[in-house]
Amino acid sequence: MKNEEWKMIEKHAKAWTLEAAELLKASFENTLTITYKSHIADLVTNMDKAIEKFFIEKIQEMFPDHRVIGEEGYGDDIKDKAGIIWIIDPIDGTTNFIHQQSNFAISIGIYENGKGKIGLIYDVGGENLYFAKDGEGAFLNDYELPRLDKASLSEAVIGVNATWVGPNKRINHENVQEIVRKSRGTRSYGSAAIELAYVASGKLDAYMTMRLSPWDFAAGLILLNEVGGIATKTDGKPIQLLEQNSILAAKPGLHEELLGYLIK
Amino acid sequence: MKNEEWKMIEKHAKAWTLEAAELLKASFENTLTITYKSHIADLVTNMDKAIEKFFIEKIQEMFPDHRVIGEEGYGDDIKDKAGIIWIIDPIDGTTNFIHQQSNFAISIGIYENGKGKIGLIYDVGGENLYFAKDGEGAFLNDYELPRLDKASLSEAVIGVNATWVGPNKRINHENVQEIVRKSRGTRSYGSAAIELAYVASGKLDAYMTMRLSPWDFAAGLILLNEVGGIATKTDGKPIQLLEQNSILAAKPGLHEELLGYLIK
Q1: With contacts defined as CB-CB under 8 Å, which chain B residues touch A97?
Q2: Which residue of A has its CA nearest to B128?
Q3: Domains held by chain B: number
Q4: Would you tell me which of A127, A135, B109, B264 could form a disulfide with B87, CB atoms 3.0–4.6 Å apart?
Q5: Does the beta-carbon distance from B99 to A203 stay under 8 Å?
Q6: Contacts of residue A56, Cβ cutoff 8 Å, sequence gap at least 6
């Protein structure tokens, strides 16, 4: 696909995202005014679906040959990576949307034949747009994000949820505890898209979690790739775009160091 | 002290906080422009001290009979709770200040003979001012925060750092793991002041941590008190204002439920 066409896709992806964000904000500003929080649980279910449908209708109208995967399941049933695929999470961080009305994001990754081309994570509450385009760099709003420097665990702030620090079915929690102890500190924000954007922008040095779906990480991987961040499964193997995966995303050097704790 | 005098204290506390926030933002905007992040570690040390001195000078000039406790130690050496005491953290969440340039706060609690009168937590990056005045309610910017509803663990989002979920010297981590498993989810932001403000504003249902100093919690306790939040040590005993304490802050009902897990 030609550069001009990707410029058009970029333009529309950004415009639709900002439009969707306004719908989200307006919806809960109304609800907050009327009932504060009691009806937000119903609202979020409706808004998740409405925003996904909004994107699918726009994409089908403007780019009829593109396919869409969305968390809510209104997209295409996709088994292969051929052509252009939009991978969309209309509200990443649903619990935060309900409880906080912040720390949730719209996440869109656009892939061509399995290669990440455009990644876009919009932190709606913070009004921060993380955007990356294959080979053209990554941006936080108008600010171009620098390449990530190497980091070591003792100076690192790690995004990891407490779930993985206690006994669980997916990873040896004692290895995770060792990482926690040897790090400078840990954080957990409850939105994988935002946490991946934080790694790409250096706000976190690494992020690890044990089960994400394609719409949770599709955009984040493209951002990371543009700034030299490393992302694999927590066993060091490549992430499979159309499957559920564990994710270890980190600065160079630190990724290798963390793998040393996770796969011993 | 008369109501009029407290209005004057409130006015100045707010104005000085916003002024200090501008100093903080300007300082790292300059640094970001020049060197991005490499010199921020030096900067933060200087800014912590500079902001504390800024407050102390303002307070001594305007209210010469008030005393001040600050994290950086430029305040008074205070052993008793008599009179009016300002308890100040110039940058709560120093690691976030360095790594993220967000999720850090200025925290000010003003006490009269040990009773909380004015609490102020300013989330500098988010430009969110949490403010409470004894008997007059709590506010997030212009929005009056509602009284906290009762909550139960299964529907709760708990602020707790991964440190307390693994083996540690301060609490039985298996009890904390049980709380993590039975909650809806956990978060960790790396700023006690912000996490207490989040409980007061309903963004978190509870927050627990094992060692905070007076400047970390002095403002948060006043906010919580105005919205019906409960705060004790994690063993259920009263918090001692001038000492290091563990803290369990939560919505009504949930506080009791969490204590049931922590003190068995």
Answers
A1: none
A2: A126
A3: 2
A4: B109
A5: yes
A6: A68, A70, A74, A75
Residue contact A99–B157, C-beta within 8 A? yes
pLDDT tens, chain B, 264 aa long: 788 999 999 999 999 999 999 999 987 766 544 444 455 555 567 888 899 999 999 999 999 999 999 988 888 899 999 999 999 999 999 889 888 889 999 999 999 999 999 999 999 999 999 999 999 999 999 999 999 999 999 999 999 999 999 999 999 999 999 999 999 999 999 999 999 999 999 999 999 999 999 999 999 999 999 999 999 999 999 999 999 999 999 999 999 999 999 998
Residues of chain A neighbouring B186 (CB-CB closer than 8 A): 161-163, 188
Whole-angstrom distance, CA of residue A231 vs CA of residue A233: 7
Select from A111, A144, A177 the last residue of a domain: A144
Q: A-chain residues within 8 Å CB-CB of B167?
A: 177
Positive or negative, the CA dihedral B48, A197, A48, A8 is positive
Q: Which residue has the tokens 């719908």?
A: A23
Tell me how many residue pairs between chain A and chain B have CB atoms under 8 A apart.
84
Question: Do B18 and B114 reside in the same domain of the chain?
Answer: yes
- CATH number where B30 lies: 3.30.540.10
One domain, residues B134 and B207: no
- Choose from A99, A195, A199 for mutation: most chain B CBs within 10 A: A99
